[in-house]
Structures are given as C-alpha cells and as structure tokens.
C-alpha cells in the first residue's frame, strides 16, 4: 500500500467532525476546481455551477500518484458528475469516487458546504 | 501426478504447452519439455527479421520465466535419443532417463538439402534456425570484407526462400533465387501470378532464375558457382538452401512407430501415433498421408492433443484442412486459398493489372455457384471476404467476376459482410464469429466499436480483422435503426464542422451558450469542452485566458503539463533565429529556477520542472527580455523550422529564415483542430525538412515550391507538391486559404495530413478550391485569417498583467505553499522527476 494514498479516506456527511473553512466562493472558477490545503492533505474542490453543487475529493490522481486532479476538467458522463485527470484523461465520479473509464482505485470524496459565501470541507478529524 | 513429456520446443511444441496450461485440469499433470536448440521456442515464421535486428529475444514465443511460472520443466540444448515404449521411458544424449505417461512428439522438420554434387563445400548454408542465420551472416561479413561485389544464390523459390532473398539483398549482396519449377511459390501460385510476383521482386533487386536444375556446385574447398547444364555455369560466392523440409521422424523409428514411406510419423485424426500413448503434432506428423508445413494446422493439432488429454476425447482434426495463406512478402501482398491451382477442373476468372502489378484469380465450379479457390498478388484486400465465402460455402453473385474487379468498375457490389453466415469466423486469433459480434450489439451489450472490441475480444490479436469488425458493427447498428454518427461526444449530436458553423453564425462566446442551445441536456466533458474552446478561439481569436476552466490541460495553464504535474516552458523563437543576449537570458532564467533544459524537436528551447506557482514568475522575466508565448501547449502553430538560407549559405536560393520568421509571426497563436508546423528550406537540399510539415516551402529558381499536408508523428507522410515557383505574396495567400479551410472542416484532433488524405477529391479538389476558387470562398477564407492575424495577442503577457487571470497559478487557494509531493532526482548535471511507481 502506498503511504500517500492511505491518507485519503472518504468522509460521509454523517461522519464529519470538523468543518474546515477553506476559502471564499470566488476563489473557485465556475464549473472548475482548485486545490485546498488541510493539514498535510491536498483536497480538490469543484464548483459545479451547472448543477449548483460543490464537490471535494483527493487532489492525488490514483493512476501515477501526482497531485493534479484539481486542475482537471469537470462535466458529466452519462449523467454522472465527473472530473477528468489532466495527465491521461482518466475520469472519476465526483459522487462515488469511482474510476469511470478504467479499473483504477476509487478516489476519496469529502462533503462540502457553503455558508456566507465561504466554502467549508468536512473531515472526520 | 502423471507426466507428459514433450519432445521438441518449436512453435507447435510451445503452442501445445500454452494451450495445455490454459485448460482446466492441467495442474494434475507434470510437463517436461525437451528442446535441442540452445534457446526456448521462437517464431520461425518471422525468422528473416533476425537478419535485420539480430534480436533473438524479440522472436521468443515466451521467455524462460513463463515456463517456470507454469511449473513446466524446460530442458534445452539436449536431444532425446531413444524411446522405450515398453518401459515408457526416454533417454537423452546426456544419458539421462525420464519416465512418461504420455509422450508428445513435436520434433518438427529439418531443412531438405538436395543431394547435389559439391553441396558440402564451404559457403553453403541452410535456413532453419537462429544458429543457421548466425553462420550465414558471419560468412556474408567475411565475403564483404574482401571489398568486391559478392553474389549469393537461394536454392528454392518458396515462401522462405523469397524472404531470405530480400534479407540478403538488404545486406548488400547481388542475390538470385534459383527455382527448379517454372514458377515461384509453385504450391501456392500459378504461372501468371508468379510472373506478377516476379516483376515486383525484380523491382526490389532480386534476380529470378526459373526451371533450373542444379547439376553441381563448382569450386575447390569453397563454392564459386552453380552449374545448371553443360554450357551454363553461373558464378556465386555463397548459397542458401531453402528447398523444402523433411520431417524429423528418426526418433519414432528408434521405437518402431509407424512412419510414412517418404517420412513423417503416421497419425490418425486424433493425432495419436501407432502407440496410443504417443502423439505427434506439427511438421513431423503425417496426417492423411500429408505433411502440413504451415503453422496454423500445427496449432490445431496441438489443440486436439490438449482436448484428447484434458477434455473432449472425441476431438479430431477435420478431414479437410485449410491451407490458405496470406502474407506480406517484402511488402508485397501474396495470398492463396482453396484449390488455388485449379486441380479439380473448375473455371477460372482472372483480373490482371500489369501497370499496378496486381494479379487476382478465382476458381468457381462449373455451375458458377460456389467459390473453390483463388490467388492474389499485389493486392490481397479482398482476401478476408473471399476466404470467408470459400470456407462457408456461400452463394456467389451471378457474375462472379465482381468478386475481384476493383470497386468502381463493375465490381465492389458484392462482398457485403452482413451476407456472411453467423458461424463465420471473423477473428481467427480470438476465435470470434460474426454471430458473436452482431449479437453483442443486438443484445445491447455493445453500443459502438470500442464496446464490441472489449466485449468480444475481436481484433485484439493480430488486428487483421479490424476492418471487418468495424463494417459488421456499423452495419448491425444501422440495421437496428441506430444512426452511426461522428458527433463529438455524448453531449452534442453534431460533428466539429457543424459546431464550427453554429458558433460562427450565432456568434456564441461561452461554452454554456453553445451547450444550452445545442447540447443534449448534459454538462459537457473533457471532449466537447476543449473542442468548443478551440472553435471559439478559431472564430473569434480568443486566447485561452478567456474561459480557462473549459480549456484542455495544457491550455488552461498556458504550459505543457509533464509527468509529475509540473510544467515546461517554451518561449517563441521565430524561425529559430535567436540573439546571443536572448540565449543568455534563457540560460540565466533556467538556472535561477533550476529548470531542466533541452532543445526541442522543433529546435526551440524547453525549460522543464516549473511548478504552477513559478510559471508567472518565469514568464514575467521572459517577457521582460522580449520573449513571448511559444504556444507549445496549444493545438496551434508551433514552429516554422528554417535552414539558414541565402543570407549565409553558399547554396541558398532565397532567404528562408526571413520568410520563415514572417510566416511564424503571421500564424502564431491561431487555434486549429491540431498542432501545425511549418518549414522553409532555402534550396532543394531541404535542410529544414519542410516536406515533413503541415506546410513546407522550398526555394527554387523563380520562386517557392509549396508543399502541403506533411506530417511526422505516428503516421509520417510527406507533404504533397501544391504549387510551383510562386512568390511570397502568393505563398501567404495559399497558406491562408489552406489553413482556414482545414480549421473549418477537419475532425477534432485531425492533423492536416489525415484531413487532406480523406478529403474527397484529394489534392486536385484542394487546388480547385484554393487556386481556382471554384467555391467562391477564397476571399472569405483570406479575410477570416487576416482577422485572426490582426487580433493576435500574447496570452502570457495578457495573463501576467491581469490579477484576476493570475489567480489560477497557485497550487493552493488557501496557502502560498507549493506542492509538497514533488520529488526530483539528479540526471546528468540536471534533474528529472522521480520515476513512476
């Protein structure tokens, strides 16, 4: 097992113990993403404007372990909101984290909430 | 645990092991394999490749580790010398004894050396094993060291002999093929087909001597020539014998297994010899009183033995064994199937085109109702279809000549893949039938070609059946009423050309406008977003800064993303001309930011290893030193490569650098379906390699020759000569029109070479549109291009001067830290990213 990828574990909304105040809404592009630093984690946060939803997942691409997912393009595949890794266009569901066009490991996803135009990411610790 | 001993580790012996291990139940047997050659089984069919690359590893059927992983005991360099059927043991040349429960003889064959007087002389070689080839090559090297032009002969004009002939020609020998029969490949081809092949081979520099019975080899200790008759002796320095094979049945004789009068171990349809615990397969086996010297029937025999031992005891070889062959001989298509030589009084239909070197014949029965066989030389594209019709006994058209006439004449109307029966085997590597392919679509499991390939595995072996798989897929989809479209992705029902027109006419400026008004209700994806971005840039001269979240990976950050997520930086150096000061500036900036530095394939300077946070800092310095974006990250003009031209070169006919700079500055920044490269050479020596570019110019007496549609890359293609001796102004006019037409009509990510090749009417059509303006659009094209040229803006200058645009160049939105995951390792005084896991 890899030490870096082990640090990223999906957090369900009911397991959130810490809402981390990340950045103002305006820091994130419309229908695009940016990266947030939390402790020693890198979290990709996406403003999916067309769906009026926010998503967060690990910034680490499970393919080659590079910190790049926040720079990927988002959209949908057959209705599933997804992000495409900028290195080789591997796509991942922003909801389940599953790899949609291959059998890579699923990525970890995190809850997001917006309060007073500030983006918060949910962690268990 | 029972023991199976396999004697012989050639292609068929190996295939037996492979098929055996893949079968359920194989683990209850122990396999011991003996090979007399020093190395594990290799691909003898492609033996001639060894002449070129001397890479024995590349020919291996499977590495030694494969045998280990499958717990097969492989003993090479040892020959089995004796079999005792009574005690069920074998003895090796090392005097070791092994006991078997079953024995599989896959001893193959040896090269047949005719008993010609003097054949034992030095300089005579056979063509069978890698060691034979090593010996041959050593002798060739020795001959060539003598310095004079040397002559080689090949005895035997069969398949292997002709392959070897090409290899000897490539080694620089004057090579002749000597054949006893009056034609080449006498078992596959008739006289006319042979003539057609002969013409093609002669064009490759191979001499053909037919109807020659060799009386003796002349010379003392080493051969000096071949005597064909009392008054005909031809001098040769060496001879390669490829005159057929003899089955290796000597081991069978030691234990009194039944052998044929002319050799070969007699087997019945279940591949058992006269001892039911001993099997024989491949070229050593005599089945139906025949030796089958092709690999495919050998593999089938191996399969039968596997079935006999582990599965279906009723499995038998079919009574009719298909000996059809299709191969590329030194680049020449040769195929034959069925009763190719018309030995059963069928009727022959022949199509011959001496100009193109094509010969095709088919044999049909007297009623003209079924296909009995056929031959193809020079063009075997119809082979798959004809072979299927033959194998499946399908009805043929009333005018059977349609089967081989070229499309457009009266031909091409028959041969629809959908007419094949469901049982027809389409992919012989993976054994996939037409029924499985069509069924996969009809059941809804597969929706397109990619699905069909992944669900059925068809086309994943040699790939030869891919055109048929594609046709079947499209025809089945059509029969289900599903339109086969070239739409860009699931979010749009339009192709790129449609979207170009829509955006141009409606004047859209954002992705959402296009998607909301013309999309299928989704939210876009990594295919349509960068495409729409590129189209809006092509039409409105937008830079990639405008809507950065829809730009492709590289355009989004105006840099080329590299293996570890860092970026490389390439400033524009128009025409490759650079002052020493600028060169020093590049070096100092690279040093300051510790960037790995390399000259690119397009002779620019590439600085690698910049983090997202560093990109604006680096560009600020570059711009201060007078550089601008090189668009190395965009589907846009990269470089116009130049030679130094008449300003310095003593051969130069014109100022290639000056014109190259002008062209590069004209087309810089323009977004296109794919990247575009140009080249300008000052004379026909062509040092700028302009004919490998999308547009290329060569200075000649009286002006420039313009070449269009060249490409390096995965499918290299020379650009085609489009116009001759034209002046600078006309060059620009033509390139403007050409590029604009390409930008309007190409498919996504299609280079000019592929676009031009698939353009209906080809180069002539392009000339009519661009030179003669037959569509009346030349002026529009020029105006559109001029607008793009006028609107050019360096997008890096634009970005660093706009704080809002700069926001994206931070690794984190909530910290100024850089990515802490990056690890670099040293590389020849510079650095590189740590290797991928």
Molecular structure report:
The complex is a heterodimer of chains A (125) and B (837). By secondary structure, chain A is mainly beta. Chain A has one domain (3-123): Rieske Iron-sulfur Protein, CATH 2.102.10. Helices cover 3% and strands 46% of the residues of chain A. Chain A has one helix spanning 3-6; strands spanning 18-24, 32-38, 41-48, 53-58, 60-61, 66-67, 73-77, 80-84, 91-93, 109-110, 112-115, 118-123. A four-stranded antiparallel sheet of chain A has the order 2-3-4-10, with no helix packed on it. In chain A, a hairpin with a 6-residue loop joins strand 8 and strand 9. The longest helix of chain A has 4 residues, at 3-6. The radius of gyration of chain A is 13 Å and the shape is globular. In chain A, 46% of the residues are buried. The mean pLDDT of chain A is 92. In chain B, helix 1 packs parallel to helix 9 (295-310), helix 11 packs across helix 13 (466-479) and helix 21 (728-745) crosses helix 24. Mean pLDDT of chain B is 90; it is low at 408-414. Chain B has four domains: 2-110 and 247-310, FAD/NAD(P)-binding domain (3-Layer(bba) Sandwich); 124-243, FAD/NAD(P)-binding domain (3-Layer(bba) Sandwich); 333-479, Arc Repressor Mutant, subunit A; 637-790, Sulfite Reductase Hemoprotein, domain 1 (2-Layer Sandwich), CATH 3.30.413.10. Chain B has a five-stranded parallel sheet. With 837 residues, chain B is α/β, with parallel strands linked by helices. The interface between A and B is large, with 42 and 37 residues.
State the helicity of chain B in percent bands. 25-40%
Shape of chain B: globular
Mean pLDDT of chain B: 90
Proportion of residues in β-strands of chain A:
over 45%
Could you name the CATH homologous superfamily of the largest domain in chain B? FAD/NAD(P)-binding domain
> What is the distance, rounded to the nearest whole angstrom, between the alpha carbons of the first and last residues of chain A?
22 Å
């Amino acid at each position: 097992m890899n030490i870096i990828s082990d640090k990223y574990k999906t957090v369900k909304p009911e397991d959130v113990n810490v809402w981390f105040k990340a950045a103002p809404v305006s820091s994130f592009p419309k229908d695009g993403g940016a990266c947030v630093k939390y402790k020693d984690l890198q979290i990709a946060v996406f403003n999916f404007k067309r769906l009026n939803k926010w998503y967060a997942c690990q910034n680490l691409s499970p393919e080659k372990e590079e910190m790049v997912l926040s720079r990927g393009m988002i959209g949908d595949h057959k209705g599933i909101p997804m992000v495409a890794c900028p290195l080789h266009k591997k796509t991942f569901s922003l909801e389940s984290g599953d790899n949609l066009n291959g059998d890579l490991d699923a990525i970890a996803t995190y809850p997001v909430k917006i309060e007073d135009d500030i983006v918060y990411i949910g962690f268990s610790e | 645990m029972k023991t199976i001993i396999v004697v012989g580790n050639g292609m068929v012996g190996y295939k037996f092991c492979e098929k055996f291990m893949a079968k359920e139940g194989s683990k209850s047997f122990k396999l011991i394999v003996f090979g007399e050659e020093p190395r594990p089984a290799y691909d003898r069919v492609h033996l001639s490749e060894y002449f070129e690359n001397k890479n024995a590893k590349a020919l291996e059927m499977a590495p030694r580790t494969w045998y280990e992983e499958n717990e097969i005991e492989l003993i090479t360099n040892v020959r089995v010398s004796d079999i005792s059927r009574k005690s069920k043991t074998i003895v090796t040349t090392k005097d070791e004894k092994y006991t078997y429960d079953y024995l599989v003889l896959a001893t193959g064959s040896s090269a047949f050396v005719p008993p010609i007087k003097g054949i034992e002389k030095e300089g005579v070689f056979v063509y069978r094993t890698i060691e034979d080839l090593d010996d041959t090559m050593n002798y060739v090297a020795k001959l060539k060291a003598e310095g004079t032009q040397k002559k080689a002969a090949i005895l035997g004009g069969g398949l292997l002999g002709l392959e070897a002939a090409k290899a000897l020609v490539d080694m620089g020998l004057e090579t002749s093929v000597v054949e006893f029969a009056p034609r080449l490949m006498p078992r596959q081809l008739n006289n006319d087909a042979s003539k057609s092949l002969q013409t093609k081979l002669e064009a490759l520099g191979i001499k053909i001597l037919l109807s020659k019975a060799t009386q003796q080899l002349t010379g003392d200790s080493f051969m000096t020539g071949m005597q064909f008759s009392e008054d005909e002796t031809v001098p040769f320095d060496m001879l390669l014998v490829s005159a057929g094979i003899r089955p290796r049945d000597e081991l069978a004789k030691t234990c009194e297994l039944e052998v044929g009068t002319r050799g070969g171990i007699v087997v019945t349809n279940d591949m058992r010899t006269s001892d039911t615990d001993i099997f024989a397969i491949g070229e050593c086996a005599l089945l139906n009183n025949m030796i089958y010297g092709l690999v495919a029937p050998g593999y089938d025999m191996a399969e039968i033995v596997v079935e006999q031992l582990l599965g279906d005891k009723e499995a038998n070889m079919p009574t009719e064994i298909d000996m059809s062959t299709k191969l590329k001989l030194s680049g020449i298509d040769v195929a034959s199937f069925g009763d190719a030589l018309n030995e059963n009084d069928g009727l022959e239909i022949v199509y011959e085109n001496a100009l193109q070197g094509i010969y095709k014949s088919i044999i049909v029965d007297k009623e003209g109702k079924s296909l009995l066989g056929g031959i193809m030389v020079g063009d075997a594209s119809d082979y798959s279809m004809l072979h299927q019709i033959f194998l499946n006994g399908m009805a043929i058209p009333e005018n059977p000549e349609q089967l081989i006439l070229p499309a457009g004449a009266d031909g091409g109307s028959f041969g629809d893949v959908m007419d094949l029966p469901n049982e027809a085997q389409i992919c012989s590597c993976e054994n996939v039938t037409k029924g499985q392919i069509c069924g996969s679509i009809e059941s809804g499991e597969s929706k397109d070609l990619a699905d069909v390939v992944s669900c059925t595995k068809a086309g994943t072996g040699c790939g030869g059946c891919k055109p048929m798989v594609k046709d079947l897929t499209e025809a089945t989809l059509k029969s289900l009423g599903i339109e086969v479209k070239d739409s860009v992705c699931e979010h749009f029902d339009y192709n790129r050309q449609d979207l170009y027109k829509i955006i141009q006419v409606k004047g859209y400026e954002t992705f959402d406008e296009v998607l909301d008004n013309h999309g299928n209700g989704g939210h876009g994806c990594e295919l349509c977003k960068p495409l729409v971005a590129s189209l809006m840039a092509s039409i409105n001269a937008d830079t990639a800064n405008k809507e950065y979240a829809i730009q492709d990976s590289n355009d989004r950050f105006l840099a080329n993303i590299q293996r570890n997520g860092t970026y490389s930086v390439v400033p524009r150096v128009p025409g490759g001309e650079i002052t020493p000061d600028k060169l020093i500036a590049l070096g100092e900036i690279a040093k300051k930011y510790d960037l790995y530095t390399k000259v690119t394939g397009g002779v620019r300077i590439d600085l690698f290893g910049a983090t997202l946070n560093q990109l604006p800092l680096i560009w600020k310095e570059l711009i201060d030193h007078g550089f601008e974006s090189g668009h190395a990250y965009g589907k846009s003009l990269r470089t116009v490569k130049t030679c130094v031209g008449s300003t310095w070169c003593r051969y130069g006919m014109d100022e290639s650098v000056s014109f190259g700079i002008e062209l590069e500055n004209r087309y810089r920044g323009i977004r296109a379906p794919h990247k575009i490269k140009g080249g300008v050479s000052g004379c026909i020596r062509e040092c700028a390699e302009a004919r490998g570019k999308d547009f290329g110019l060569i200075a000649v007496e009286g002006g420039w020759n313009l070449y269009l549609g060249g490409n390096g890359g995965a499918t290299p293609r020379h650009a085609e000569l489009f116009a001759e001796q034209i002046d600078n102004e006309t060059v620009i006019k033509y390139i403007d029109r050409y590029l604009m037409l390409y930008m309007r009509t190409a498919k996504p990510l299609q280079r000019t070479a592929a676009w031009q090749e698939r353009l209906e009417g080809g180069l002539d059509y392009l000339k009519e549109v661009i030179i003669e303006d037959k569509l009346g659009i030349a002026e529009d094209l020029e105006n559109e291009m001029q607008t793009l040229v006028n609107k050019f803006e360096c997008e890096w200058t634009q970005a660093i001067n706009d704080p809002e645009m700069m926001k994206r160049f931070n690794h984190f939105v909530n910290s100024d830290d850089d990515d802490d995951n990056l690890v670099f390792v040293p590389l020849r005084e510079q650095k590189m990213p740590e290797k991928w896991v």
